[in-house]
Write a structure and sequence with these properties.
Order of helices and strands: HEHHEH
Structural class: mainly alpha
Shape: globular
Strand order of the largest sheet: 1-2
Distance between the termini: 26 Å
Radius of gyration: 19 Å
Amino acid sequence: MANRSVKSEPVGAYSGRQQLFLRSVFAVLIDLTVLNLFNEYWDYVFIELFSISLLAAMLLQFLMKVTIIIEHRAAGYFKEKNGLTAKTLRVLSTWGILFVSKIIILGAINFFFGDSVVFSGPIHGLVAFIVVVTAIIVAEQVFIKIYRSLA
C-alpha cells in the first residue's frame, strides 16, 4: 500500500445556513456527550433517559447562545465608552450576565424536565451545574481548536 498524505481540500461551498446547522448539531452532540458522561460518573448529575438528555442538551445549547448574544450586546455598549468606569462596568456586566444566566438556565431545565434532570449538591445543584457547563465549554473549545488545526 502506498503511503498517501491527506490534504485539506474544500469539497464545496456551504451556505451560511448549512454552516450554522453543522455548528449547532456538533455543539448539541458535544453537550449531549458531556451531560451523559457526568450522568454516568458523577452522583450530582441525574438524567432519567437518553432522550431527555438530548432535549436538555438542545435547550442548554439554545439558552447558552442567547446568553452569549446578550453578553456581547452589553459588552458592545460599554466598549463604545471610554474610561475606567466603562471598563469596570463592562467586566461586571459580563460576569453578572454569565453568572445569572446559569441560574436562569438551571431554572429552565428544572421547569421543563422536573425530576427527570437533577443537578444536586452544594447551593441546590448550582455548583454541579456550573461544573457541567464549564466542562461543556471546554469540550466545545477543544473541538473547535482541533477542527481549525485540520484546515
